[in-house]
Amino acid sequence: MIEREFVKKLATLSRLALSEAEIEELVPKLGTILEFVGELNRATLKGMDGSGEQGESVKVRDDVLKPSLGQEKALSLAPDSYEGHFRVAKIIEN
């Protein structure tokens, strides 16, 4: 069973501002989702190769090696770069 504190922590990590009513509504819903995921984890996949296809795998296209963009071209397409690296906004607080 999921507890309110778990939903509050999940909301904080997801940067969601949830009201107390929304938290109360999400507790049973998330519990149901997690129970279903648990059932999927316990499912037996006898005869499956892991690709989602039954039987022989289907080859869609040849895997052909192609040249990459290169650092200079990739950085020129980025919104911001610094000393040869992509620069991104800080999203994790201490």
Write the layout of secondary structure elements.
Layout: H1 4-13, H2 20-42, H3 71-77, E1 81-82, E2 85-86
Antiparallel strand pairs: 1-2
In words, what does this structure look like?
- The protein is mainly alpha-helical.
- The protein has a domain of 39 residues: Histone, subunit A, CATH 1.10.20.
- 43% of the residues lie in helices and 4% in strands.
- It has a two-stranded antiparallel ribbon.
- The mean pLDDT is 86.
DSSP helix fraction: 40-55%
- Give the topology string: H per helix, E per strand: HHHEE
Radius of gyration: 23 Å
The number of distinct helices, counting runs of at least 4 residues, comes to: 3
Task: State the CATH class of the domain at 4-42.
Answer: Mainly Alpha
Would you report the number of β strands?
Answer: 2
Looking at this protein, list some descriptive labels:
94 residues, mainly alpha, Histone, subunit A, two-stranded antiparallel ribbon, 2 strands, 4% strand
In short:
The protein has 94 residues and is mainly alpha-helical. 43% of the residues lie in helices and 4% in strands. The model has no long low-confidence stretch (mean pLDDT 86).
